[in-house]
Amino acid sequence: MNLSSLDSKPLTQCQICGCSHLDSILFLGYVPPVNEMLTVGGVPNVEMRFPLELMRCKQCTLVQIGYEVDPRILFPHSYPYLSGTTKILRENFKNLAQESNALFHLSQSDLIIDIGANDGTLLAPFRDLGAKVLGIEPSQAADVARTKGIEMVKDYFSQKTAQQVRAHYGSAKIITAANVFAHIKNVHEIIEGILHLLSSDGVFISESHYLLDLVQTLQYDTIYHEHLRYYALGSLMKLFEQHGLEIFRVKRIATHGGSIRVYAARKGQFPIHTSVTQSLKEEDEAGLTDGACFRTFRQRVIQSKLDLISLITDIKAQGRRIYGIGAPSRASTLINYVGLDDGLIDAVMEVAGSHKLNKYIPGTRVPVLDEQKLYQDQPEYVLFYSWHIAEELAANLRKKGYLGECIVPLPSPRIFSTEPVYV
Hints:
Blueprint: E1 9-10, E2 22-31, E3 50-57, E4 63-65, E5 67-68, H1 71-74, H2 87-104, E6 111-115, H3 123-128, E7 132-136, H4 141-147, E8 152-153, H5 159-169, E9 172-178, H6 187-197, E10 198-209, H7 211-216, E11 229-230, H8 233-241, E12 245-253, E13 259-266, H9 274-286, H10 297-317, E14 322-325, H11 329-338, E15 347-350, E16 368-370, H12 372-377, E17 381-384, H13 390-400, E18 405-408, E19 414-416
Helix pairs in contact: 5-6
């Protein structure tokens, strides 16, 4: 990749209102892209790192990162993540389709378009309901979706893509963007592209990490360069209002450790549900709107880091082994910020078939290996990187025969106690 041709730069203005008064909330260091993983056994080479800082706009209250990395680095065509491998996402997207059908009475003539469709997991339940579906996805995950019979446009979403899609497929009754709407730069252009594709009575449904959950449960590991913005309902409303869109329904969902599902349409199309006013009230009371909750957030993150280092170093001082479980994108921030290198974590386990197998965790020489090694080696401890689904992970490991103890790193590091199942 020719670095001189890449468009990576500091973000000195708010991405919603353009205000240049951005307050720093937390600086997490210089962190490598989460999907740039070197092959195990290869000769170490130069690794890109970019500043990672959480910022807050004084004017519109948007929380964003302070540096934009070129999407060709963050979302390469070999992008390894497949949403269909995660049970909670499959269940969530099935719920989304059922909820949408109940609210909008979908017919066979309705077109559902998913932006950042990945492997088609979101669209599959809409297709099963009889609606027409189309995904827009630039990575190799689009090829996986096609094997499921889901039609895909293999490209980045842009105004140009929107024009081409509308010309070929027509307008959409529903456009979805799940865990991608906070990822795409030039957000105003993206919304204009969505409006171009959306029918006059159409609905745009976004799902994003929810800032309130991030703060309350100390999910600083969800801060990484793919996530340009961290939405609260209040800041999201200000963004949509600039384009004549109105949020009429909101739902908090469990995905990614706490997300928000937002329904928006052209102003006046739908009555405003009580969930909108209730959510705004919750944000006010939590100190999200006036920024009061961020006054202690940084110190809480630092204390959590110190506590995790203390817990792990005590274990290692006893000569015990620790294997990581799972290599989600969020793990990279935690690992690099805390300093969980190969002196502390022996290896990270991924299931067979993962695109991350036999690669190093970004910024380290910690190898990602087949999960079967866990049951052969039986390390004394495992560290959950997808800690927000710790109970599900622990139950699965026990069923498969793991006998050791489990560590949950956030929000307060602790040993997750479950009885081992001897087989």
